[in-house]
Amino acid sequence: MQLYFIRHGQSINNVNIGNSEYMQHSDPFLTETGLEQAEILARYLKEKQHITNDKVWNEQNQYGFGITHIYASLMERAATTAAPIARALGIPFSAWTDIHEEGGIYAREAEGRFNGLPGKPRSFFEKNFPEMKLPDGYDESGWWNRPFENHEERQLRADKVLAELIAHHGDREDQPEERIVFVSHGGFFVRLVSAMLKLPWRQGAHGMKSWFYINNCSISRFDIHESEITVCYMNRTDHLPANLVSG
Description:
globular; 7-stranded mixed β-sheet; 6 helices; alpha/beta; Rossmann fold
């Protein structure tokens, strides 16, 4: 199996980092830049979808991608990024609730408290992303409806996602290799990498903290086989013009 992790396009929260007068949006939408990034990424993946040489290890996708499945979180910025990719490739995409960003859907309150919120209702996605397959039982009450997600829950969720990914899409004898896209979030990316590589959370050498930084609409690739996880590349943005590379 090949896993392609794509971070969503630039959101209204991303562009306002450092703006002390901005009130953080609980489920931010894409900016005009973010929408343009997503469209350019979709065109790039369409151009590179067909695999032109299947006799070699295509570790840098120099011979195409051959994407088979697309998943997005139920956060607006991820679904909005995934939709043009799915349309360009002609592949239906599905919601994978657990690949959401850290914390879930919440509002910042006084004294550093975080209040869990419902998240968008089913009708929002049915109206805006009719091609998106939604979870059974998801209704107008929203998809989150929980308190703010704590740190222990975040890593357990990433571990669960990895196990389910391998169970559903892992290599099977006499079956073609599946190539999976996750359209997700920067914080969850670090959790998932920690799950794949069995890394302690944010620990680095000499007492320093670590982080895996990825840009908006970047692509990272992991090959997951029976006995090995290979990091082929991380945070590729060469498909974007320099003026559209953002974080």
